[in-house]
Amino acid sequence: MVDIIRTINKVGRWSLNRAVGKRRPLVAVFSLTHYCNYFCPMCPFGDPDKQGQLKLAGKNDLTTDQWKQIFEKVSGYAIWSIIEGGEPTSRPDFMELVRHLYSLRVPITLITNCSLLHTINLDELKQYIQFITCSIDSVFEDPYCKVRGVTPQTYQRVMQNLQLLNEHKVPHYFNSVITKFNTKEFIDGSYFKRAKELGVNSVSLTFVEDRADVDYSLLPDRDSIVKACKSILEHIRSKEDPQIMLPAQYFEQIIEHGRGMYDECGVWKSIFVNGNGTVMVPCWKYNSPENTYNLLEKSVEEIWSAPQWEIARTCHDCEVLGCIWYSSQPVTTFAQNYMRGLSKIIGQHAPEIGENI
For the whole model, what pTM was predicted? Predict the structure, then answer.
């Protein structure tokens, strides 16, 4: 159960830090493992050498106790937490880690490809998490398999697991990365129609941000991007389900400018912890020893006082990545969306809040 008063206090401390010019994280992202059973070309965890990836995870992934230490160190700052991977549900101790994070009274969102959800006790899981973010780039078999590099059998397994979420009444929404493989279903709106049929009332979208470490591009051509944005905006204006979780401004700016617009990168608002317990400052694009800090050895205060955060003031390398755009918007935009979500939580738990006041 979410402790609303605790959350409000954290927001207050964060605001005071901002007033005196201190950057501090507000959302915690825990990448539990280096392993993923998928082959997505837009993601470094899509490495086709799965045996090598398993060895890497076995060597470098934090232990159960080490992750618990990280959770405890970060919980004093975060108003929300996100568990992801790799594929987080592939860890044998996944449920134990979720239980421990829940015990720290930090709301949890799980990001998963949904391929292993049938191996988990969903009735227990829904007691601990607020939402599951289902990474469903395409709702149709052929483009799904192309985007994710998996077999039709895996696609069918995922569709079955989505039905399990509905049957067990586990709150969830879809997230899609729009690439050249799946643009068509956003242009013609068929993604939204099919997502609604699958029982989803919310969808989060972002265009793919091409990786710097590969020699190929997954981004659709400019004409297709504009057509997709116009179709998405039309769906937003229709107010029909599923609702689009990213504000219309994101898509409007991509149409007008070819990218999302922001003054200063807001990546510092989230603390992203890698599977080995490290934090890269200011982000993954600056992956070098001098920019990498071990959270088991350093405090959040020490890491967030590092001089490398100054890079975020002028770095605009991420052009269309939705999460970076959103975190880089004015605090009013960020707060408005958060407070809307907070009001829903307050409405759900009003009797409990009354007891805590």
Answer: 0.91
